[in-house]
Design a protein that fits this description.
Layout: H1 2-42, E1 48-54, E2 57-79, E3 84-89, E4 96-97, E5 102-106, H2 109-144, H3 150-182, E6 185-187, E7 192-194, E8 204-205, E9 211-228, H4 229-240, E10 253-257, E11 268-273, E12 283-290, E13 302-319, E14 324-326, E15 329-335, E16 341-345, E17 347-352, E18 355-360, E19 367-371, E20 382-385
Parallel strand pairs: 1-20
Antiparallel strand pairs: 1-19, 2-9, 2-13, 3-5, 3-8, 4-7, 5-6, 7-9, 9-12, 10-11, 10-13, 11-12, 13-18, 14-15, 15-16, 15-19, 17-18
Helix pairs in contact: 2-3
């Protein structure tokens, strides 16, 4: 009997222990479930902050840039016009000279001797002419009185006229020798920069070595650049379709970019266009005339020419960094009305500074992600931050804008 009683007590204890275990298991399950829900709720990512800009369509100036080479607008080869010994080089090689400035001196002595000889011959001819004139004046009235024959008058007339011609010939010879004497002083015909002297002092100058130096005009200076046939056709097609508006009277402004990237202080205008394409290069030559008062640009220097003046009407441009490259081409991230990211394929055109022209894929009023798009995924919620304003000049800096919630597009 006692054994049965103990068994019943033990059974009741076991059942109580089972109930306690089950209750504990249920509580533990509830706690675990509650913890998982809290953990799952905490794992949801917050909205990602991005910098976006609104798409605006506006008339945008466009620029075409070409590799160019400078050329002197007037390059003069300096030759000796007489033969003789080169006495002295007067100018400094590579220096700027003015029109009329002396460059070289030839030996004048032989030419001065010729001038003196022809001057004496001229005086002799004048004396002979005076004698012939007096004889003619005496013969003419005597012939009228039949004191002298007609033959005497004809001889006197012929002698006088011959003496007049001799004087003219002597004068022409004297003028020629004076001209040759003047050629011994060789001057620059233009303002420009000189090259090196090709002949040294004391050299005998003749027709074979008569070139002495070169003077190149630097103001204005020419800038030559070439446009390919494909570029020219594309430009004309876009003008015809209204995608580009040319400047009035085709007055393009030519801006010069130097080798260090700085902008030359003077711009120019196109003054010459080749009448035909170059069959060897397939390009079309254009020439701009640019003011160069300080002589900074030199002939045969390589620069870049930017042709400005044309406008692309109602153009859409976005920063270059907003455009990404995918397996199917270019795309951008657009923030839709629900403030979610949306990948949008786009067709890009030409570059304008740091921006792309977008020809297809975007509409005015849409918001395009500029920064923060590398980690975006489709349909992720974003918070839009406007682009930072440029810092103001001076010691103070513009305050950074605070993030603002995304607004629905109109």
């Amino acid at each position: 009997m006692k054994t049965v009683t103990n068994f019943r007590v033990t059974l009741r204890s076991a059942k109580a222990a089972v109930r306690v275990f089950m209750v504990s298991a249920l509580c533990l399950s509830a706690l675990l479930a509650s913890g998982c829900k809290k953990k799952e709720k905490a794992a949801a990512p917050p909205p990602q902050t991005v910098i976006a800009t609104e798409v605006v369509a506006k008339d945008t100036p466009i620029t075409f840039e070409y590799v160019s080479q400078t050329e002197s607008s007037h390059e003069v080869n300096i030759f000796s016009r007489v033969t003789g010994f080169l006495e002295k080089r007067v100018y400094t090689e590579g220096s700027f000279v003015k029109a009329g400035q002396v460059l070289f001196l030839m030996d004048k002595k032989p030419f001065q001797v010729q001038v003196d000889g022809y001057a004496a011959a001229l005086e002799r001819s004048k004396a002979a002419m005076e004698t012939a004139r007096l004889n003619f004046e005496r013969t003419k009235p005597l012939t009228a009185k039949n004191a002298l024959s007609q033959k005497d008058l004809d001889d006197a007339t012929g002698a006088y006229e011959s003496s007049v011609a001799a004087v003219a010939q002597a004068k022409a010879q004297l003028d020629n020798t004076k001209l040759n004497l003047s050629y011994c002083t060789i001057t620059s015909p233009v303002d420009g920069i000189t090259s090196d002297a090709l002949q040294k002092d004391g050299t005998y100058i003749n027709t074979e070595n008569s070139k002495l130096t070169t003077v190149a005009v630097l103001n204005p200076i020419w800038v030559n650049f070439s446009v390919s046939e494909n570029e020219m056709k594309k430009y004309r097609d876009e003008v015809a379709s209204g995608k580009i508006i040319r400047p009035k009277n085709d007055n393009y402004d030519i801006e010069i970019v130097l080798v260090d990237g700085s902008i030359f202080p003077h711009s120019g205008r196109i003054t010459f266009a080749a009448p035909s394409f170059n069959e060897k290069t397939g390009t079309f030559l254009l020439r701009a005339s640019v003011a160069n008062p300080k002589g900074i640009l030199r002939p045969n220097q390589y620069v870049r020419a930017r042709m400005k003046g044309a406008i692309r009407p109602n153009a859409i441009t976005i920063p270059q960094r907003a455009v990404q490259q995918g397996a199917k081409g270019h795309f951008v991230w657009v923030v839709n009305k629900e403030s979610k990211a949306e990948a949008r394929p786009v067709v890009v055109g030409d570059l304008i500074g740091n921006d792309w022209f977008i020809t297809q894929g975007l509409r005015p009023g849409e918001r395009v992600v500029v920064d923060g798009g590398m980690t975006l995924r489709p349909d992720i919620v974003v918070t839009v931050k406007p682009p930072e304003a440029p810092a103001e000049s001076g010691p103070g800096k513009a305050a950074e804008p605070k993030p603002t919630p995304a607004k629905k597009a109109d």
